[in-house]
Amino acid sequence: MALESNGTKASEGENSLQSICYKRGSLRLLDQRRLPLETIYLDVRDATDGWNAIRDMVVRGAPAIAISAALSLAVEVFNLESFDGTCEEAASFLVMKLEYLVSSRPTAVNLSDATTKLKNIGLEAAATVAQAKYVFQAYIEAAETMLTDDVTANKAIGSHGAAFLQGRLKGPKTLSVLTHCNTGSLATAGYGTALGVIRTLHAEGVLEMAFCTETRPFNQGSRLTAFEFVHDNIPATLIADSAAAALMKAGRVNAVIVGADRIAANGDTANKIGTYSLALCAMYHGVPFYVAAPITSIDLSLSSGGQIVIEERSAKELLHSRGGLGEQVAASGISVWNPAFDVTPANLISAIITEKGVITKTKSDDFNIQGFI
Fold this sequence. Notes:
By secondary structure, the protein is an alpha/beta fold.
């Protein structure tokens, strides 16, 4: 049973894996730092609450970050008691708040993509409506559409990915896949990206085993992905990050499927730290390596992954247990380097699975992402 931030029980029948609970004027986010032992929802009343929730990892996963940011501002403008400005001033207010929200997690392109679209909607509304309240109304409706569109996109990713894997991996009747970090219902509006592919494989009766890494140092794999697998009765096994190479060498993995926070125009992909290591292991052992992500994760303005800004996290996440929330586990005085993401070069990626289909390589072994889009 979920708990609201004030300690009261949430409504009966609420899905504990629903990371975003929204109705017009109200937003609650599942505090993923407390999973899997506690299911606590936090009230988000405005963009500042949204910024803090994203930055502090209450909510994470590129699609969920973008949607949570958009909805936090939707709640704020819906609950404004008064706004005396013009339509242009209302649009400027939205732009200022959206730019602030982008600064919470700069690596996830979904967030900047969503804010750009929402800025444009606000500016267009300001040019066509008579009152500021209608500018805000247009923004709210657009933010709500993003929420519903994400679930639809995720299910399409799952369908395309499952069909593609079964077509390419013709040997075994059932497949075992390895995934990293968390890309499921907790990282999106629902269903998931890479986990969406795994869910579909399981629903179609062709998943033998899903392996998930613990995903140090924040343990999104052991805390969140494992939690989703157990919740949905999907056959799954948790491994240490450092066990992945041995697992592949033993021939127990047919494919690796991961998500993405940003994909450059050439296919270079930023994802949770440790993804690059998995891709190198997969290449050495002849295991196909797939990225599953919505089109909004693709940033055509970047020619390669070398231009992707990599966020560095607090040293506490390494120095203390539970991603910085628990007791100290490292020696005092030690220096720490804690990048949140790494970039996997396109030459290590077999294909990119999107809601519009699967992007495969050309005869020259390159991705023509722009042509696909």
